[in-house]
Design goal:
The chain has two helices and eleven strands; from the N terminus they run ααβββββββββββ. By secondary structure, the chain is of the alpha+beta class.
Length: 224
C-alpha cells in the first residue's frame, strides 16, 4: 500500500472533517436572510387574505333633501249674503212649443248619384229648424215618407207597407238638424202593400222626402 492509500485510511479512521468557522458564519447569515424573507412573505399573504375577506365599502348615492309641501294660502271665508242679495230659485224651464211650418225645412239626399246593378240606394231625410228659437218637431215614423218616382210613374212609398207608425217629439235648437235613413231595396210597392209583379228597370229616378206637411225637393239618381 503506497503513501496515498495510507493517508486515506488515516482520514477514514479519524471521521469527516468539521467545517471551518467562516463556513458557519456564512450559513448563519443565509439562514437569517431566509427567515426575514419568510416573515415578510407571510405578512403580505395575511394582508391579502384579510383584504379579500373584508367587503369593500361602496360609495352611497348623494342624499337629496325630501321636498317640502307648503300649505295653500287660506282662502278667506265668503261673506254671508245679505237679505237683499239672497239668490232667487231658478225658474222652471218652459216646455218648447211646436215649430211653425215655416220654420221646418226638409231635404232629400241619396248616398250616391249612380248605383250599380244590385246595389241598394240609401235614402236620407233631413229636417232642420230654420227658426230663431228652439221648438219641437214631430220626427216620428208616423210623419215620415220616403217616395221614389220615375217621371209620372209612382214606383215606391215607404208608407205602402209600413206596419203602423209612432210619434216622437224632438226639441230642435235653431239651425240644428235631425236625420233619418231608409234603405230602398229597388222594389215597387202599391198602396195597402198590394203585390207588384215587376221591379224597376235601369234608368233615372227621383227621391222625395216628406215630414208631416213639409215636403222636400227631389234628389235625382241613376239605377244601372
Amino acid at each position: 500500500m503506497d503513501g496515498m492509500g495510507t493517508q486515506q485510511l488515516a482520514e477514514e479512521r479519524s471521521g469527516p472533517r468539521r467545517p471551518s468557522p467562516g463556513v458557519y458564519r456564512r450559513r448563519r447569515l443565509v439562514a437569517g436572510v431566509l427567515a426575514v424573507l419568510l416573515l415578510v412573505g407571510l405578512g403580505f399573504a395575511v394582508a391579502g387574505v384579510v383584504g379579500a375577506l373584508t367587503p369593500e365599502k361602496q360609495a352611497g348615492p348623494a342624499t337629496v333633501p325630501a321636498p317640502t309641501l307648503s300649505a295653500p294660502p287660506a282662502t278667506p271665508a265668503a261673506p254671508e249674503p245679505k237679505a237683499s242679495e239672497t239668490p232667487k230659485p231658478e225658474e222652471t224651464a218652459k216646455p218648447a212649443s211646436a215649430c211653425p211650418n215655416e220654420s221646418v225645412s226638409v231635404a232629400a239626399v241619396t248616398d250616391a248619384p249612380v248605383y250599380a246593378a244590385g246595389a241598394a240606394p240609401v235614402l236620407t231625410l233631413t229636417v232642420t229648424n230654420t227658426g230663431e228659437s228652439a221648438c219641437e218637431i214631430n220626427v216620428g215614423t208616423s210623419q215620415m215618407e220616403f217616395s221614389v218616382t220615375s217621371g209620372s210613374d209612382r214606383i215606391f212609398s215607404s208608407l205602402d207597407c209600413q206596419d203602423g207608425g209612432e210619434d216622437f217629439l224632438k226639441k230642435v235648437e235653431p239651425g240644428a238638424s235631425e236625420t233619418a235613413n231608409f234603405t230602398w231595396e229597388r222594389n215597387r210597392s202599391a198602396p195597402g202593400c198590394a203585390a207588384v209583379a215587376s221591379n224597376p228597370n235601369p234608368g233615372t229616378y227621383a227621391f222625395t222626402a216628406r215630414l208631416g206637411e213639409t215636403t222636400s225637393e227631389t234628389a235625382v239618381f241613376q239605377l244601372e
